[in-house]
Amino acid sequence: MAEKKATREAYGAALVDLGATHDFVVLDADLAAATKTGMFKKKFPDRFFNCGIAEGNMISVAAGIAAAGKRVFASSFAMFAAGRAFEQVRNSIGYPHLNVKIGATHAGITVGEDGATHQCNEDMALMRSIPGMTVICPADATEAYAAVAAALDTDGPMYLRFSRYAVPDLNAEDPSYHFEIGRGILRRDGHDVTVIAVGNMVGMALEAAEALAAEGISARVINMHTVKPIDREIILRAARETGAIVTAEEHSIIGGLGAAVCEVTSEECPVPVLRVGVEDVFGRSGDVPTLMKAYGLTAEHIVERAKQAMEKKTSCR
Amino acid sequence: MMTPSRVLELKKQANDIRIGIIEGVYNAACGHPGGSLSIADIVTYLYFEHMNVDPAHPKMDERDRFVLSKGHTAPALYAALAHRGFFPVEELKTLRKFSSRLQGHPDMKNIPGVDMSTGSLGLGISAACGMALVGKLDGKPYRVYTVLGDGESEEGQVWEAAMFAAHYKLDNLCAVLDFNGLQIDGKITDVMNPTPHDEKFRAFGWHVITIDAHDFDAIDAAFREAQTVKGKPTLILAKSVKGKGVSYMENNCDWHGKAPKGDEYTVAMNDLRAIGAALEKEEV
Questions:
Q1: What is the pLDDT of residue A316?
Q2: Which of A108, A278, A286, B35 could form a disulfide with A250 if both were Cys (CB 3.0 to 4.6 A apart)?
Q3: Domain presence at residue A259
Q4: Percent of chain B with pLDDT over 70
C-alpha cells in the first residue's frame, strides 16, 4: 500500500521547493497553517503576505500583483476561494486573464467534521464556468506537486483544488509518471466500461476496476486531473472503445467532472455516462470514511454504477 | 506649485475631456456621464501633469499605475487616455459599440493605457493594493493611483483593501474618493450613509487630505503631499460636483447612468463650449 498523504501537504512542499528557484509570492487569508502555505511563509517570509480573513480582497490583490508582472499563488479553503470570492475570481482575474494561481484546499466532503458550511462541492462547477480558467484537481501528493510546478510554468489563471484528507500516493513509485495540464492519464486499460475519475476518487476507481475484474468485467480507468480544459480525445476514445462511462468525483454531480464528460460525449459520441459524486445535497459533519460511504463516494458504488452503465450501452461503437 | 498659465492649460484640457465624455455617452446612447464629469479634473491632473506614463509605451515597467475603481466612469478615463495620445480622440465616439475596443467598463486587455479591468465596485482598490505591494517588494519607483466612488465605499471590500494597504504600509498608493454625494438611487447619506470618510480612513491608518475636486491648485498640493507621506497610504477625499460642467446634470443623480439625447446633447455641448470659450479669454 502506497504511503498516505494529503494533496495540500504536497502543495506546501512544492511551494517551498519552487520558491528557492522561482520568483513568486504567496497570499493566504488566515489559513496558512491549514492550507500549508505556512511552510512557504516559514522559508520565505518576505514573499508571503497574509491578507487576513478577507478573501475577496485577497483575490483582487492577487490580480493586481499579476498585473504588475509578478507570479502569485492565492490560497484559502475552496469554499472561500471559489465560493466567497467567485465574483473577484471572475472579474479581477478571469476577465483580464491574469496569471494568478488559486491554491484551494479543503475541497469536497472530506473536510469532514466541520460540516456543510465548509464542504465545498461546487467549486469545480463555479471555476469551470469562467472563460479561460484552467481547473486542476490532483489525485495524490505526487500529482499535486507536479501540478504546482506545471502551474508555475504556465501563464494564465488557474484553479488548483487540493484536499485535506490523506489518500494513498498512487504515483509515488511510478518512474514513468508524467503530468501534463489538459492531458488525462490512462491508469488501467479495459474494454467493457470506463471509469473517469478525478482527485481523491482516482484511487477508488482503481479499486473498483479490481473488483470488476474479479467479476470478469474489464474496466478502463482514466485519471482526469485537469477538468478544464478537458481531454476530449481520451474521453471520446473511451466512449468509442468501451461504450459506457462512469465518472467519479468528490464534488457535486452538477457542473463538475461528470458534467464536463457529458458535454463531450453528448455532442460527439453519445454513450451512457453515469455520475458518481455528491448528489444534489449539502454535506454534514462526520468522520471521512463514514461521509464517503454515506454520500456514495466508494469503490462499491462505482462498481454498481459501472454495471448499470454497461446495461445502458447504445450502438455508438 | 503650478504656474497660473499651467493651471489654465489644465482647465482647458479638463474641459476637452468633459466634451469627450459627452461625445462618448451621446454616441453610445448610454453610459455614466455624472460621475465621469465629477472626476474629470482629477483624471486630467493625473494624466497631464502628475503621472509618469508614456503613450508610446503603455506597458513600460516603471510607469505609474492608474486603477479606475469606479469603473463605470470609463468615459472620463477613455477621454483622458485619448487626449493624452494612447489612442485617437475620434475613437471616443465608438464607446460601448459592438465593434469598439472601448468597452462599457475599462478592459486592460484591449485598451492601451488601461492598467486594470474594473467595473464591479470595490475590486479596483484591491488590485491597486496588489500593484503597490509589488512596487514595494521589488523596490520599483512607480506609484499607484486609484479613484473610488463615494457610493462605492459602501462595498465591504473597500474596507478590506483599506486595512490591507495600511497593514502593509503602502505609501506608494494614493486613493482618491470622488465625493459627489450621489449614487444611482439618491443621496449617499439617504441610500446607505458611508460617511464620515475622513475619520474612517484615518481610523484605518491612512493619511487623509480633503480638497475641492475642481481646484487644480488644491489637487496639485494634495498629490504632492501624498508623495511625501511615509509608511501609510493616502486618501484624497475630493469633494466634487456630480455632472460638473453641464448645467442640468450638476448635482442631479438622474444623470448617474443616462446619456443626453437630442436637445440635451446640444445644451451639454453648448455649456462646455461656453466654458471653453471663457477659458480662452482668461488672462494669466
A1: 45
A2: A108
A3: yes
A4: 100
- A86 and A155 co-located in one domain: yes
Q: Is residue A279 part of a domain?
A: yes
**Residue ranges of chain A whose pLDDT lies below 50:** 315-317
Supply the pLDDT for residue A222. Answer: 98
Q: Is A154 helix (H, G, I), strand (E, B) or coil?
A: coil
> Do A205 and A123 share a structural domain?
no
Q: At what angle do helices A232-242 and A257-268 cross, to 10 degrees?
A: 70
In chain A, the residue whose alpha carbon lies closest to the alpha carbon of B64 is A68
Q: Can you give the residue range of the structural domain that contains B188?
A: 4-281
The range of the structural domain enclosing residue A91 comes to: 4-168
CATH of the domain at B129: 3.40.50.970
Strand-strand pairing, A158-161 and A100-105: parallel
Length of chain A: 317
Looking at the structure, tell me whether residues A11 and A41 fall in a common domain. Answer: yes
Write down the pLDDT at residue B39: 98
Nearest to B163 among A52, A59, A64 (CB): A52
Q: Supply the CATH number for residue A236's domain.
A: 3.40.50.920
Q: What does each C-alpha distance from A255 to A98, A227, A275, A296, B41 come to in angstroms?
A: 24, 10, 11, 18, 48
Quick one: pLDDT at residue A317? 46
Number of domains forming the structure of chain B: 1
| Residues A227 and A158 both lie in one domain | no
Task: Please give the pLDDT value at position A7.
Answer: 97
Q: Specify whether A55 is catalytic.
A: yes
Q: Is A313 left (phi over 0), alpha (psi -120 to 50) or beta?
A: beta
Query: Model-level pTM greater than 0.90?
Result: yes
Q: How many domains does chain A have?
A: 2
Contacting B with CB below 8 Å, chain A residues are: 25, 46-47, 49, 51-52, 54, 56-57, 59-70, 72, 87-88, 91-92, 95-97
| Structural domain contains residue A114 | yes
- Of the candidates A89, A291, A306, A88, the one whose C-alpha atom is nearest the C-alpha of residue A196 is A306
Annotated catalytic residue, options A9, A55, A249, A250: A55
pLDDT for the residue numbered B28 = 97
